[in-house]
Amino acid sequence: MSVTEAPSSPPVGRLGFARHQDVDLFVQRLEAFERGELTPDEWRSFRLLNGVYGQRQEGVYMVRAKLPGGIATPAQLIALADVADRYARSKGHVTTRQNVQFHFIAESEADDALRVLAESGITTKEACGHSVRNWTCCPFAGVAKDEPFDPTPYLEGLARHFLRGPYSSTLPRKFKPSVGGCCGTDCSQAFINDLGLLARVRDGQPGFKLVAGGGLSTLRRTALTVEEFVPVAELFEAADAVLRVFNRIGNRNNKAKARLKWAIDKIGPDKFLAEYRAERETIRAEGGSPLVLPEQPTVQVRRAPLAQVSSLEPGYAEWAADSVRPQKQSGFSAIVIRLPLGDISSAQLRALATIAQQYGEGEVRLTNEQNIVLRWIPDARLPSLHRELARVGLAKIGANTLADVTSCPGATSCKLAVTSSKGLAGVLTELLDRRPELGRVKGLDIKISGCPHGCGQHYIAGIGFQGGMRKVAGRPAPQYLVYVGGGITADRAEFGRLVTKVPARKVEAALERLIDYYVANGGTSHAFWATADLDALRTLLSDLTELDAPTENDFIDLGEAAAFEVVSGEGECSA
After folding, report:
1. What would the pLDDT profile of 222-255 be if each residue is shown by its tens digit?
2. Res 573: pLDDT
3. Are 247 and 298 in contact (CB under 8 A)?
4. CA angle 343-344-348, nearest 5°?
């Protein structure tokens, strides 16, 4: 983005990604399905490609708003709030892929929700299904001190290039891409994506390191380095080549083994690299993939005068310590807004729409940690901003600390989930907020998933929990597999080691012991667990692993009221 000193008028927004024809076609296909002209499988495949996902509960959908780079304008924040108010119990959920999901939307109202989103330029196209999913990006792109250049224009260009592309919705399986820029870190999580691009400069020229084939779930792989440096002029060609190889060699017979990582495992890295190079030659022979970058909006760094605060609000210093990140542009800071459990209300979305225009660059960015970032905040206005955020419950301390727990929605809505991961996340969040000496421990994070698929990214957490089930006296009881030592470094993904399994209502005690052990033994980062004695850790938790005298609560999942049961519904992740 360019920067200008300007009056209070808001910046020109980004071009939207939506097309009204997509919503029109959705309505036409829905009517065809209702007339019996489409089979249930045909309708399911179509609606998934349009971001409409079946829930555990009958008669309702989850709708996924696709926001490349997690970027949302004020008008789009208002649209998200409208969808939440009208159709989704006045709440949205920020995901680990920088989308916003809405749950419990009535089947009869899904098309109306899509229409509201499209009016603001938000698409749901290819947000689910066997498609190129949302392009994620470092939320500090353009303002981070340690980036070689701003990758945002390339992110947006790639997202537009692939959306509705010839291969984008007919792949063997989903394809997750990311773009990042920070040197010495992998804040964009490139190494767990199917395609990862990391900004680099060589001989004064901008380009990207290209990696491919990363992923979590039942086969965890750190991405393979395909090219150390791709000049920006060749960026689309290189990205196209990876996608086309996947489209050609991916497994179309077994969806459980269809991701790019499986294909690379099957043919081997050398063969994959040869296929990639051959595909690049084919693309060049066809005329290439020219780089097309959309114009970026201008950052308005000066707004209309705001009333100055006469004194700091309570908690300002703690909030600033967690949330304020100085930009490379002198005099400005980026602010991380912590969203417990990734949830945000419609009222908060509306408040953010105003705040983003009054204080920042005129847009917000969502994060992989399920938070929101405001950027280009003049340092002198931080106290005023804190006051405004506090008024709407968005000035919570602990952003990106151990207390800032990440979780997928779990069995609250997902058909595949075993446990209510958000229930556990709520319990652990309360514990760490209540005991700040634990929540302030450095070098760790906590991530929770309700099943092995790992949407909560527990495999790359310092301490991760995966939902499961055990039988006790013939009855099902919720439990969690405990992992330690996951994380992403500058050049690879490290996956957590399994320690043990703990009943759901004993996880809180297990977490306290693990943190105490980490601190007592000098832990400073997730790498501490790589050399920790697993037998010692199992001994540490040994008295927490069984239910010798279970109470009725042990058979009720956290955050739930009814007895726990495993609902074996057919998930749509591989539909």
Report:
1. 999 999 999 999 999 999 999 999 999 999 999 9
2. 59
3. no
4. 165
Q: Report d(CA 51, CA 64) in Å as an integer.
A: 5
Angle between helices 346-359 and 382-391 (to 10 degrees): 160
Query: Residue 94: what pLDDT?
Result: 98
Q: What is the CATH number of the domain that holds 60?
A: 3.90.480.10
Please answer whether residues 355 and 390 qualify as being in contact, where contact means their C-beta atoms are separated by less than 8 angstroms. Answer: no
Residue 139, both tokens: 């939320």
Structural domain span for residue 338: 296-391
Examine the domain organization and report whether 435 and 334 are in the same domain: no
| Domain count across the chain | 4
Q: What is the pLDDT of residue 182?
A: 80
- Where does residue 536 rank: exposed (0-12), middle (13-18), buried (19+ CB within 10 A)? exposed
Do 208 and 258 fall within a single domain? yes
Residue 437 lies in a domain: yes
Q: For the whole model, what pTM was predicted? A: 0.94
- Asked, for residue 170, whether it belongs to a domain, the answer is yes
Residue 549, burial from CB neighbour count under 10 angstroms (0-12, 13-18, 19+) = exposed
CB 289 within 8 A of CB 298: no
DSSP letters for 251-305:
-SS-GGG-SHHHHHHHH-HHHHHHHHHHHHHHHHHTT------PPPPPEE---S-
| Spans of the chain below 70 pLDDT | 1-13, 183-184, 300-308, 310, 568-575
Spatial contact of 414 and 182, defined as CB atoms under 8 Å apart: no
Where residue 383 sits, what CATH number does that domain have? Answer: 3.90.480.20
Q: For strands 3-4 and 299-300, give the pairing.
A: parallel
The whole-angstrom distance between residue 465's C-alpha and the CA centroid of its chain comes to 17
**37, burial (CB in 10 Å: exposed 0-12, middle 13-18, buried 19+):** exposed
Residue 128 forms part of a structural domain: no
Residue type, 219: L
Q: Are residues 279 and 321 in the same domain?
A: no
Which residues contact residue 387 at a Cβ distance below 8 angstroms, ignoring those fewer than 6 apart?
309, 313
Would you state the torsion angle of the CA atoms of residues 196, 204, 237, 21, taken in this order, to the nearest 10 degrees?
Answer: 70
Q: What are the backbone angles phi and psi of residue 351, rounded to the nearest 5°?
A: -65, -40
Helix axes 507-520, 534-541, angle to 10 degrees: 130
Q: How far is CA 425 from the centre of its chain?
A: 16
pLDDT at 13: 65
